[in-house]
Amino acid sequence: MPDFLIIGAQKCGTTSLYNYLIQHPQILPAAQKEIHFFDLNYSKGIEWYEAQFPARSPGAGLLSGESSPYYIFHPQVPKRVKKLFPEVKLIILLREPVARAWSHYHHEVRLGYEHLSFEEAIASEPQRLQGEIEKLNSDETYYSFNHQHYSYLSRGIYIEQLQNWMELFPKKQFLILKSEDFYAAPACILNQVFEFLEVPAYQLEHYDKYNVGHYPAIAESTRHYLIEYFLPHNQRLEESFGITFSP
Prior knowledge:
The longest helix is centred in the C-terminal third of the chain and has 22 residues, at about 220-240. The chain is α/β, with parallel strands linked by helices. About 30% of the residues are buried. It has a single domain, classed as P-loop containing nucleotide triphosphate hydrolases (Rossmann fold, 3-Layer(aba) Sandwich). The chain is globular and about 55 Å long. α2 links the parallel β2 and β3 (about 65). Strands 2-3-1-4-5 form a five-stranded parallel sheet. The protein has eleven helices and five strands.
């Protein structure tokens, strides 16, 4: 079973964080970083999921977990996690949402899933996602390609996602980090995570970045439009959690 889950958000540094964590001598890797049990593989059952984690002797002080960044955004995941692992520790990385959306877009382009321009894609998002959350909530077997891949703006409305999770879990089970802080001081932030997981501090030899994308700068007009778009949501985030971003 997992002791911790890195639940998101996508394109916020979760791959780097997970790879750093599993270098700690008391943290063992799962079969893979992204198991996607609670969002994409839930029908495979709990025995399949538990088999993705290494066997550990009771009292050995060894931990294991996984990182699936779609978890924070998928509407069914919080209640599934609560049902099966109500005491699991939940780690969240949040990145300034304009930068996150731009990175997400280029990720989908690289995968071959996105053929629209960024401006066309964000304009098309409401139509692409129309009715998808309702289908996900009404049918546990439903998979929404659009919800997973074309949610450039929606995934950056962090306040709504955090509220969905915190309706079910107490705040003490969450560690919420800013990606920008993690990028700037990985050793410091990593030791915050180790403290949260109740394992000793540990220093890595290298803090290499994983899953880094290279792409041109966003158009200034688009950037300003998105800053205004996210402003009210970021204000609510600051009021509730004290988290601020500088676009």
